[in-house]
Amino acid sequence: MADNALWQYSLLVYSQPPVHRLCQKLQDEYGADVNLLLSACWLGKRGIVWSPEQVADMVKHSQAFRSDYLLQLRALRRKMKQHAPPNIYQEAQRFEMALERWQQDDIYAYWQKATVSPKKQSFSLCAQTNLHRYFDQLELAWNGLLSELVEAITVVPPAEGD
């Protein structure tokens, strides 16, 4: 999918060191899917709040995609970091990024088809609601790192056309 606003948004915000650090920490320590964290914030920026059914759909598809494709590759890439020649490791990184893009294309297509009505609430409130529902679906308690993530993303300069 060539025109994917979610992917463009994710590249922009994930390039910011605080956002990158927080997403990695939430992924490594709590099993969060970075693509869903970023999706929750991207939708929040548009005033869209996930319904419980939508978040359940997102988590179901995310878990299947991650177990079918992403997690084994990520584990291999991390193992290769210490042992593989740099060019091989970089190829593994590029391939993992391609899989991340594929997942985001699927997420973006889902939201392009979904019937949603933007709320007249702040980005911060919408994003926090989405993240809270996501962690509820994972049966994890609200975490201060999620608030930090929303704060870090709100200071990212807007992209052109955002």
Automatic annotation (TrEMBL):
The UniProt entry, under InterPro entries, shows:
CHP02444 (IPR012659)
Q: What is this protein called?
A: Uncharacterized protein (TIGR02444 family)
Q: Which organism is it from?
A: Litorivivens lipolytica
